[in-house]
Amino acid sequence: MIQPVDTILALVLLSVLISFGSSRLPALIKVVAFQGVVVSIVPFFIGHGLTVGGVVFTLATLLIRGIAIPVFIYLAIKKTAIHREVEPIVGYHASLMAGLVLMVAATFVSPKFNLPQSAGNALLLPTAITLLAAGMFLLMARRNAIAMVLGYIVMENGIYLVGTGFSVRTHHIVEFGILLDVLAGVMIMAVILQNINQAFDDVDTALLRSLKE
């Protein structure tokens, strides 16, 4: 029987392919926002006995991950007036193929971990591993600094799902602290991106090689 959580996680896997094949930064931000909302509500579906505090932490996580962080990134690209990514290191068609390979590999290796919550939710751990790998891939395959920040957020979404697979009760406080650090990092990165854009009239990280000591 297909679990409701597997249905929404399948949409997350589809969003990974969309992020790999899209060159428009607003579309990438919407994908990251969607992933943030979905991974934040997963604890409501996987059978954990959430306390009132757990529900509050989950809703706060949803607001930060699904709304606050994407809004800060969107404001950053609005200030820099850059809405399309520069030519990536790995092409979009090759990225799509890499995304499919990542999903197959994640599905293959996930049963070997034997996480307590993965038995009844077939896509929980494969999706977490896929998000981790997808985030690292975006960090390595993209030249645009904003796309690289989005890759970092995707990777953090995967870390959250891995923690959810172990236990919601024990990981909420730690995860919330990490999430606040991520939010602060995104705010700082927005300022850095604006300064990079003012200096180079672009946010292509390859231009940083021209800096001299």
Structural features, described:
- The chain is mainly α.
- The chain is 73% helix and 0% strand.
- It has one domain.
- Helix 1 packs antiparallel against helix 2, helix 1 packs parallel to helix 5 and helix 6 packs antiparallel against helix 7.
- The longest helix has 33 residues.
- The model has no long low-confidence stretch (mean pLDDT 75).
Mind sketching the topology for me?
Layout lengths: L3 H18 L3 H17 L10 H29 L11 H18 L14 H18 L3 H22 L1 H33 L13
Helix pairs in contact: 1-2, 1-4, 1-5, 2-3, 2-6, 3-7, 4-5, 5-6, 6-7
The chain-level structural class is mainly alpha
Task: Give the count of helical stretches.
Answer: 7
Weakly predicted, low-confidence segments: none
| Fraction of residues in β-strands | under 5%
Helix content: over 70%
Radius of gyration: 17 Å
Biggest sheet, open or closed, and with what strands and sense? Answer: none
Q: Can you count the beta strands?
A: 0
Domain module count: 1
Backbone shape: globular
Key descriptive features of the protein:
73% helix, 213 residues, mainly alpha
Summarize the entry for a quick read.
With 213 residues, this protein is an all-alpha fold. The protein has helices spanning 4-21, 25-41, 52-80, 92-109, 124-141, 145-166, 168-200. It is globular and about 45 Å long.
